Amino acid sequence: MATTRVLVRVMDVPEESPNPPVLQPPPPAHVMETDAPGHLVSFINARDPDNDTLWYYITEGDESGRFSMGVDSGLVSLARRLDHEEQHHYALTVTATDGVHTAATKLVVEVMDANDHRPVFSARTYEGAVSEDVAPGSTVVTLQCRDRDQSPTASSAVYFTLHHAQALASQGLFTVDSFTGDLIVAEPLDREVSSVHELTVSCRDRGRQENADLARVSVTVEDDNDHEPVFLEPMIIAKVSVGAAAGTAVVRVMALDHDKGDNGRISYSIFEGNAGGIFNIDTALGVISLTRTLADAQPPEYLLLVRATDHAAQARAASVPVRVMVTASQSSPPSWQGNKPHVEEVGEWVGLGTALARVTASSPSALHYSLTGGNEHSAFVISPASGVVSVATPLDYETTSWYNLVTPCPAWYARKTLNKCSLQGGYSFQGEKSQVLSDLDPDRVVWPREMCIGLDVKPLPKKGNS
User: What are the angstrom distances between the C-alpha of 22 and each of 60, 73, 100, 104?
Assistant: First the structure.
């Protein structure tokens, strides 16, 4: 509780006064929104020709009670703090009276802004999507940022910048118009390199001590059918025995398409060379099989042209020749060729489809290679016909440092396990024991053997290193 003393002086009011007070129009006053209550705003100068005592009042323009007036002094001061963002212009009507006559004038008060608010984005996260064939200069999304310190007459109180790109592959691909906030494509995009770009943007005010806000932008790159199917080898050679029954699998062809969705979904067909319709191909798997039993009178070999076609609206296609040789019927099992270990180095930056190693087996009948285990994230693919192991998805040294691959020996007679070699800091593959199993006695091991294939993956060199 507090107390104060108030002195009230009762003044005599004249019954008549020949002349009214004369007020001098005051100049515009300027105050900062940070000025405290009691701050002097202006002094109202008036005189009375009759030397009567004058009283001063604010009669209009201060409905919120922001100002106070010295009744007997003519001093205008702040009664409460002002806020530039709430109201930055006041037009006060000030009067002076001698009790008989009253005179009025205008006092204009301008509230000066202080940089006491930081700019704020309209959203914490922005999302945009563009096709990978979009031309540089195209706008992905427009950022919006509001600063409460902005004057209504100012053209722009904030400016935008691209603060950070989360991935190395995203750097330099986008830019931000500092004035409009448009996020713009700066370089050609490639969905197969990066399908999503995570960016951090900032907006800053123009105060002497800048205030800033940050937001995230997620840009999804939509697929364009800019890749055609690619077969794993330029020519495929397969064998099939005379007397092989209808439905026998001869060879499997495989093509890769780095596009996404229907743009990357492949169907296979025999385009040429299938005289008499003796062969059939699984449109989805690419497995070529016999439609009827091969007789001795059949030609000694066939040359087929197999086509792989994607499912895009404007489809792309590729073809590969398949040479099928008809051999005498033999029951001997296949065998792995070569038993010397070898090591190959491969960088994590190698492109998709790059051949890394090859496993080879010999057999008088059809051979089929496949990967049946250890191929996490489908990082590798093996050609069913040639045994060439290739890169199927981008490699990342920091994410996975090694793989164990398992491939059964062709024609289901043997199995070869690829395990990790103790190689320094990279991916590696080692062939352990390979077992050839007789189709007459599958539980009896008839051909144990050992072979090592090492692939040492090197990390991407750091900038500045040669």
Answer: 19, 15, 13, 9
Contacts of 463 (CB under 8 A, 6+ apart): none
Do 283 and 294 form a contact (C-beta atoms < 8 A)? no
Q: How many CA atoms lie within 13 A of 346 on its CB side?
A: 27
Output the CA torsion sign for 325, 328, 332, 338: negative
Per-residue pLDDT reduced to its tens digit, 20-73:
888 888 999 999 888 889 998 999 888 888 888 888 999 999 999 999 998 888
Phi-psi region of 63 (alpha: psi -120 to 50; beta: other; left: phi over 0): alpha
Q: Starting at the edge strand that comes first in sequence, how are the strands of the sheet with 266-272 ordered?
A: 236-241, 317-327, 301-310, 266-272
Report the amino acid identity of residue 455.
Answer: L
- Cβ atoms 35, 75 nearer than 8 A: no
What's the whole-model pTM score? Answer: 0.46
> What contacts 413, CB < 8 A, 6 or more positions away?
333, 334, 363, 436, 437, 438, 439
Residue 349 in tokens: 């930056």
Over residues 285-297, mean pLDDT: 85
- Structure confidence by residue, pLDDT tens digits, 341-383: 455 666 777 777 788 777 777 666 666 777 777 777 788 888 8
Cα(247)–Cα(137) distance, rounded to whole angstroms? 56
In angstroms, rounded to a whole number, what is the distance separating the alpha carbons of residues 456 and 347? 8
Q: Write the DSSP string, 185-204.
A: E-S---TTT-SEEEEEEEEE
Find all residues with CB under 8 Å of 188, minimum gap 6, and list them. Answer: 136
Q: For 446-450, what is the mean pLDDT?
A: 33
Question: How many whole angstroms separate alpha carbon 137 and alpha carbon 347?
Answer: 33
Cβ atoms of residues 46 and 20 within 8 Å: no
Type of residue found at 304: L
pLDDT digit string, tens, across residues 202-215: 998 876 677 888 99
Q: Are 296 and 242 in contact (CB under 8 A)?
A: yes
Question: What average pLDDT does the segment 72-97 reach?
Answer: 90
Rounded to whole angstroms, the Cα distance separating 392 from 372 reads 15
CA dihedral sign of residues 191, 194, 198, 202: negative
Q: What gap in Å lies between CA 199 and CA 176, rounded to an integer?
A: 11
Q: Give the separation between CA 326 and CA 241, rounded to whole angstroms.
A: 6
Q: Closest by alpha carbon to 158, among 95, 112, 115?
A: 115
DSSP symbol at 270: E
CA separation for the pair 301, 277 (Å, rounded)? 14
